[in-house]
Every structure is written in structure tokens, then in C-alpha cells.
Amino acid sequence: GAVAVILAHPAGNNAPPSFTLTTAQPNIPVMGGGSAHHTWIKDLLDKGPLTLRITTNQYVNPMGTNVIGIRHAVGDPDGTKAPIVMVGAHIDSVLGAPGAHDDASGNGVSLEIARVLSQYPLDKELRIGGFGGEEGGLLGAKAYVNTLTAAERARFVGEWQMDMVGTPYEPARLWALTPNGQSNHVVQEAYNAGARVGFDGLRNCRLGQSDHQAFFDVGIPSSLFIWLDYRPPTPPAVCGPTGGTYVTEPQYHRPTDTMDNISPERLQITLDVVGGAVAHNALNAVTVSA
Ligand code: PHE
Ligand code: ZN
Ligand code: ZN
Ligand code: ZN
Prior knowledge:
The protein has one domain: Zn peptidases (Aminopeptidase, 3-Layer(aba) Sandwich), CATH 3.40.630. The protein is built from seven helices and nine strands, in the order βαββαβααββαβαββα. It has helices at 36-46, 100-117, 139-147, 150-154, 185-196, 212-217, 264-282, and strands at residues 4-5, 67-71, 84-90, 125-131, 156-162, 173-178, 203-206, 222-231, 245-247. Helix 2 (100-117) links the parallel strand 3 and strand 4 (125-131). Helix 1 packs across helix 7 (264-282), helix 2 (100-117) crosses helix 7 (264-282) and helix 5 packs across helix 7. One zinc ion binds next to helix 2.
């Protein structure tokens, strides 16, 4: 099955990054389950040709535009019944900031996940969300969740939001932030995926302030994945009920938010953590074990 990409706003300053997602290949890897498939996912994500590609765009139009890629599950060609796994990022940036980190980085990792998974059959529906108008108040994501029927909402396994996932700013760490500070299925899958590749740096605490909030508000499990100098109230990294404070990198919402200030290593970690979680959920070639 091809990945359907809907380009509702093909030109102008608010144009999305160029989406070129390839179609399925006939070869299905034989997965043994256990840790074997996790090694395979990492190998796949690490391969040279799987280079991250990121472009930038600038938010100038308060109307914004959502760009949603949908790939139906095997056995559900009409896309009416399979569970839905969604990854999201926002495609706008603030005026005056090119938005390489905020949030072309998130879109780059989203598209890489889509491209890798395009080569395999899926037993869940994969949705890639490029949300407009995030900086104006989560406008695109709120509009998007409002288009979902109750039946469609009920099919959601979760939404993995990536916003600012590539800063080289040294104090930043990878956080899984939820609007209520509680862990959920989306967070837990990310922890599991990190553990499978030997990354134990992920922490969970409380924050809204990105598109995951819109999903949370309608009862869909979601989390924001973000490299941020986030400071939980209770050391040494325990999340209290009110959440913490944070300090942003110097490039945040500035003209210096350019590709010069993007860390490939942190993009790769994000890809391992979020891509690994999504692959574990969506690939029917992967044996899901307890
Ligand atoms: N929505 C925020 C933004 O795009 C993401 C963010 C959250 C930034 C928390 C900083 C701190 O600017
Ligand atoms: Zn921003
Ligand atoms: Zn952002
Ligand atoms: Zn597993």
C-alpha cells in the first residue's frame, strides 16, 4: 500500500516540506520476536540510505494547513476499522525563525519513520500528522481532532508528537511530556524502544504546549517528545504533580534556528526511540511480546 499524502496547500510560504514517500516492497523480513526484531529495527534505521532529510518553512498564515499522511492497515483497505498509530509534528514556525529545530526536526523524523515503514506491511493504520498553526495555539491539531468521529477516536492507539527533537544545546535532554505528567502507553512504548537500543536517557514529566495536548483533550493517549533543558521540581528527575520549569536553547524562536544548529545524533536517538515505539506497534512483521 502506498502512503497517501494530501497536499492541501501546495505553494507559498506555508508550504509543507516536500513529502516523497515510497510505496511498499514485496519482501517481508522474517521476524523472530524477542530482541531479534528490535536489533533489526535498529539496523534498518541505522542504514546509510536512511538519511534524515529536513527542510524548513515559515509560518505566516494564521489559517495554517494540516498535511496528513495515511497508510491503511493490511486487511482494512477502506481504513474503517484498524487501530490507528499516529506520529505528529508541526509544520509552521514563528515569523523570523526558519524553524529547523522548531519543528522541521520533528517532521524530518516523522517522514523517516513513514519512509522506513513504507517497506513493510502494517497491521495498524499509520497516520503522519503535519499540523499547521501550532504556534498560534495548536490550531491545526485542534481542528484535526475535531474532524475525528467518536468511532475514529476510539481506534487510536496513541499519538507520538515530536516538537524540537534536534538541538545540540548541551543541557537539553530527551523528555516524554504529557499534559497531566502521567505516563501512558505512548510513553511506555518509547521507554521500551529506548531500552532496546541501549538508550536510558528518556524521562517523563508534565507539559502541554504542543499538539499532543489536543489529542489528550479528546482522550487519546499522547506524549510530546522534545529535547529540552527541562527541570522537574523534585531532584534528581522525579516529576511532581505540577511539573517543572524549562530553559530553551538560545536559538529558540530566533533567526538562528537553522540547520547549522541541528544535531544528527539527537535526531537519531529520537528516531530510535519514537520510530522504534511506532514500529513495534504498527508492524505486523514484528512479534509483539509482553
Ligand atoms: N509548542 C512549543 C513551541 O513550538 C514547544 C515548546 C514546548 C517549546 C516547551 C518550548 C518549551 O514553541
Ligand atoms: Zn515554537
Ligand atoms: Zn514547536
Ligand atoms: Zn517488543
